[in-house]
Amino acid sequence: MASVITCSAAELLPHLGSSANATATAEFICGRFNEVSEYLTQTTYAVDNTYLLFSAYLVFAMQLGFAMLCAGSVRAKNTMNIMLTNVLDAAAGGLSYYLFGFAFAFGAPSNGFIGKHFFGLKEFPSQAFDYSYFLYQWAFAIAAAGITSGSIAERTQFVAYLIYSSFLTGFVYPIVSHWFWSGDGWASASKTDGNLLFGSGAIDFAGSGVVHMVGGIAGLWGAFIEGPRIGRFDRTGRTVALRGHNASLVVLGTFLLWFGWYGFNPGSFLTILKSYDNSTRGTYYGQWSAIGRTAVTTTLAGCTAALTTLFGKRLLVGHWNVVDVCNGLLGGFAAITSGCAVVEPWAAIVCGFVAAWVLIGFNKLAVKLKYDDPLEAAQLHGGCGSWGIIFTGLFAKKEYVNQVYPGFPDRPYGLFMGGGGKLLGAQIIQILVIIGWVSVTMGPLFYLLHKFNLLRISGEDETAGMDLTRHGGFAYIYHDEDEGSSMPGFKMTRIEPTNTPTPDHHNRSVVV
């Protein structure tokens, strides 16, 4: 926010001469001037908070995208279950983030590991945070939980969803966001005391690591401990494709996520009404320009990844697959999320191209290791998110880094842009600590749920479908290619047209 301009009657008085009313005139002019200045300051707060609220709404709309993507990617017999888990990610995450999560993440002043203020939004709002900021960060927290739910879809007990979602949004995710986004975080690029990791801090602008890696690694452990779905790999080790039942929902969910990503990445600036001190550009250039550039880099990375996946999979498997293209698109978005604000548009194309091959490679590795993730969530968000963090350490531009993270003009920047390897070192540290932290927290949680028989449903329930056995009925009437999916007496088939001749409307007789 621009500094507040003030007027002093004592400074103005010499310019008004020595008339008897000079003092009163100076006080009147400065009083009116200060009123205008205060009004403009309030307007700036209002504009910035409105921008942040709008961005929060966009990010929250991504939950609908997750729901549609998940529903289309699972078999029809589990549609109601996966939709319900997406609703509960938002609902349970809202309460846990309100009670504990936000305080752990941004409760300043605090130490470098964990926040300790604003539990239950006590003493809120403050000069540092308003309610719009809480809403925005909550939308990020439930996005991480939504990623995890995709990895363990079609075989997880409902109570396990409630437990892991609350724990992830209330504790695991907030700690990571404190480390890399809080002004007190030990590895934050915005650390206020100037003691930056490797002189730069880890740049994860919108959360390739904080959101996507956290959700992806948590899902990796959940799916690994549960094991693959029944029928995913046969006794000979042959891979069996358990395709989702509705590609239309996958495409719808992908476009909704694409739309929401314009709140996810550009919205992470938090404010829009801010000018940049740059003598090489005119007054037309400010944070509003950086926000537009961030939207462009986000778009280019996703588009490039989608096209690379399209032609790459065509070469590898011999056909065009819309679901693969959608996943590739999302992989490009997950990768650019870290460096979207500090790279040139041309670099975003490089990011998307590599992200597509990272996703393809991790998917092949998953098959070899007999790892089953119905939505490729761990590969997509964990793998492409990791690449995005490394990409930032390679391609971050000095000018943009200094604009987005001001106050340290000698801050390291991208290795390939001439900034040395310190930023890349900080990025690698981020990857390692996120993998370590999520593994030592979510791994034991899923293991304990497994030991207490609270994680995976029975084989009979999984074969019949969770909608029928756990949720009282099917989401809609369908015919599933999986013949073993129906309970005896509940077999559902497609309704075919009858052989009744079509009426001849041109030669019909009228009976009076």
TrEMBL record:
The keyword Ribonucleoprotein does not apply. Gene3D superfamilies: Ammonium transporter AmtB like domains (1.10.3430.10). It comes from the Eukaryota. Residues 51-476 form the Ammonium transporter AmtB-like domain. Keywords: Ammonia transport, Membrane, Transmembrane, Transmembrane helix, Transport. InterPro entries: Ammonium/urea_transptr (IPR029020), Ammonium_transpt (IPR001905), Ammonium_transpt_CS (IPR018047), NH4_transpt_AmtB-like_dom (IPR024041). The keyword Transmembrane helix applies. GO terms for molecular function: ammonium channel activity. One of its GO terms (biological process) is ammonium homeostasis. It is a multi-pass membrane protein. GO terms for cellular component: plasma membrane. The chain crosses the membrane at residues 50-74, 95-114, 134-152, 159-181, 201-225, 246-264, 346-366, 428-449. It is found in: Cell membrane; Membrane. Its main location: membrane. Belongs to the ammonia transporter channel (TC 1.A.11.2) family. This is Ammonium transporter. It comes from Anisodus tanguticus.
